[in-house]
Every structure is written in structure tokens, then in C-alpha cells.
Design goal:
338 residues, alpha+beta, D-amino Acid Aminotransferase, Chain A, domain 1, five-stranded antiparallel beta sheet, 12 strands, kinase, inositol-1,4,5,6-tetrakisphosphate 3-kinase activity, Kinase, IPK, transferase
Length: 338
């Protein structure tokens, strides 16, 4: 496995990577996104990413422990843990990937703690795109016009948020219900609250637990908002990933043991990574949440970047504040979700 793809005739298959790919599976709980994700059985998720997204992760990782990195360190606690990157270098490795039924990526692949649903019994996921700008500053005029048109025809332009996808467990049928990006584009400023109601519908028969989970998510959103206010970052087409456990008897202990960067997972995935395990000794860098039934992460950094002195992303701040307002409205209503 090498950083640059080499001809199959001269490349050597990384047997550790190959074994992991052979036990991998298509990730079925992906709520949105263009690239298909691959779940490994050790709690990691493999996600095709652009060089810019990899750079975004690496700059955050290289900043040091949370106490040393300041605002960037605080921001990083809301990112999935990054484990490094790899490229499928041989035909054998590409075949093992394809055998999972997941589309073969053209870009480099990042292996990180993106799989925040690991260990959940009945996870419910919502992908909420935040911000008012959906493309990078170096996008072509044609792409910029296209993305601006998409934004203007959705709640992105007015609220700074848009529901990209929802995967929610239906307690009555015992199956999952999915809402795709078309559903999200059909919501207006007045009806987007219905999307939030749909997301929490798995809790409609347990108002007490519903209130606890919504309060925890609101608290995490408010914390993220406060961190974002001090971050020199531009989040272009990034998403907030909401996760909660629909099963009150869910396997919380397994979630507490989710991979955190220790052990040999990293080495077996990539021989070119420079992750520093010393950070794991810093108590401030522990991103475990108090309520293991809930998680909130910021994901998808293909067009995002850090820049010293640039200040906060006000479009994203508006979006986060509106997401907080939605949760407050639902909590105050005190009625079951639809």
C-alpha cells in the first residue's frame, strides 16, 4: 500500500490491509453524501476523500493535544477521529474493495473514526448541511453558479441549514425509514421543523427519554457554536451528523470501547501516517461524551480550510443557531414526534 498508486505488476499487496478489506462491508447507515463508505469490523470507517479533506484532517491532528491546540483542539473534539490515509495500490486490493459491493474510489482513502454509529444497537442518523456557501473559493464560475442556485432553492440560503438525509428506526415495523436529499430540498423555512420531528420519531413513545436526548444534542450544539465562534475556519458544504440510540437497552459498553487511535489499527491501515499517540495521554483530549446514547460530529471537509486570522464562518454560525432553535421549539412543544 503506497501513497501514490503504482502499476499492479510492481506494487506489493499490503496483507494487513487486504485482510481488513476482506472482512469489511458496505456501510448501510449512510444518511447522505456522494462517496460510498466502507465499514471495518474494528469500528473504523473508510471514506474516499479529496486531498483538501485529508489536509483539513491532518492540520487539525498536527495541532497537538486539545490543551495545546486551543480553539482548533476544541473544534477537533467534534470531528471524527482521524487515523490516516491510504491508496489502493494493487489489483488484489481493489478487487477486495469491490467485493464489498461498494463503489471503487478514485480518490485517496481516509480511515478515521467516522463511524460514530459503531456499537449502537438501533442508531438514528441525520445529516444536516450547515452554512450558506457550498463550494470552495477556487471553484469554477460554472460550478459556483450551479451551487448558488441549489442554495437559493432550499433552506440553505435563508437558514444556513438543509437536511441532506435521515435514517431513523421505526419501532412499530422494526425497520429503518430513510429520507433523502430530495426530501430535504422540498422543505421550507416553515416546514423544516417537520424533518426534525421525523428524525426523532423513534422516540415518540418515550417522551422522557426523548427529552433527555434532545437536551443533550442541544447542549452539544451550543458547545459547538461557542467553539465555532472562535475558529479561523471556512466550512464549505460541511455537515453536522446527529446520532442517537433508538433502543434504550442499546450496547453502550461497546461504544465506550470504540477505537480512539491506540493500538495497531493505524499501522495496519497505512504505513505512511504520522499520527502521534502521545496525545492519548492527555485527559483534555478525551472526546468521550457523557451520554453514550447521543453524538454530534462535524463531517465532510472536501471544500473546507483553516486560515489564520480569517475569523469565524458566520454562515455556519447562523445555521448552527437555527438548528438549536429547532430543538428548542420541539422541546417546548412537548408533543410526540410524528
Amino acid at each position: 500500500m503506497s501513497e501514490e498508486a503504482a502499476p499492479a505488476a510492481t506494487s506489493t499487496t499490503n496483507t494487513a490491509v487486504l485482510e481488513k478489506l476482506r472482512t469489511a462491508r458496505h456501510y448501510d447507515l449512510q444518511a447522505a453524501g456522494h462517496a460510498e463508505l466502507l465499514a471495518l469490523d474494528n469500528g473504523l470507517l473508510v471514506k474516499p476523500c479529496t486531498p483538501r479533506e485529508r489536509q483539513f484532517y491532518e492540520e487539525a491532528t498536527a495541532a497537538g493535544s486539545t490543551s495545546e491546540a486551543g480553539v482548533m483542539g476544541e473544534f477537533r473534539t467534534f470531528m471524527p477521529r482521524y487515523f490516516g490515509s491510504l491508496r489502493l495500490a494493487t489489483e488484489e486490493e481493489r478487487s477486495a474493495w469491490s467485493a464489498t459491493g461498494t463503489a471503487l474510489p478514485e480518490q485517496a482513502v481516509s480511515a478515521d473514526r467516522q463511524n460514530v454509529t459503531y456499537g449502537y444497537c438501533k442508531p438514528c442518523v441525520m445529516d444536516l448541511k450547515i452554512g450558506k456557501e457550498l463550494c470552495s473559493d477556487d471553484a469554477s464560475p460554472e460550478k459556483r453558479a450551479r451551487m448558488e442556485a441549489k442554495a437559493s432553492n432550499s433552506t440553505t440560503s435563508t437558514l444556513g441549514i438543509r437536511i441532506c438525509g435521515i435514517v431513523v428506526y421505526d419501532q412499530s415495523s422494526g425497520k429503518y425509514t430513510s429520507y433523502n436529499k430530495t426530501y430535504g430540498y422540498g422543505l421550507t423555512d416553515d416546514t423544516i421543523i417537520e424533518g426534525f420531528k421525523a428524525y426523532f420519531s423513534a422516540l415518540s413513545d418515550d417522551n422522557a427519554r426523548r427529552a433527555i436526548i434532545m437536551e443533550e444534542l442541544q447542549d452539544q450544539l451550543e458547545h459547538f457554536r461557542d467553539v465555532l465562534r472562535g475558529a479561523d475556519v471556512r466550512l464549505r458544504s460541511a455537515s453536522l451528523l446527529f446520532v442517537y440510540e433508538a433502543d434504550p437497552e442499546g450496547a453502550t459498553e461497546m461504544r465506550r470501547k470504540a477505537p480512539d487511535g491506540n493500538g495497531d489499527d493505524l499501522d495496519s491501515l497505512d504505513d505512511d501516517d504520522d499520527y502521534d499517540d502521545d496525545d492519548d495521554d492527555d485527559e483534555d483530549d478525551d472526546d468521550d461524551i457523557e451520554n453514550p446514547d447521543v453524538d454530534l460530529r462535524i463531517v465532510d471537509f472536501a471544500h473546507s480550510f483553516w486560515q489564520s486570522g480569517i475569523g469565524p464562518d458566520h454562515g455556519c454560525l447562523q445555521g448552527v443557531q437555527n438548528a438549536i432553535a429547532m430543538l428548542k421549539k420541539l422541546r417546548q412543544a412537548k408533543v410526540p414526534s410524528n
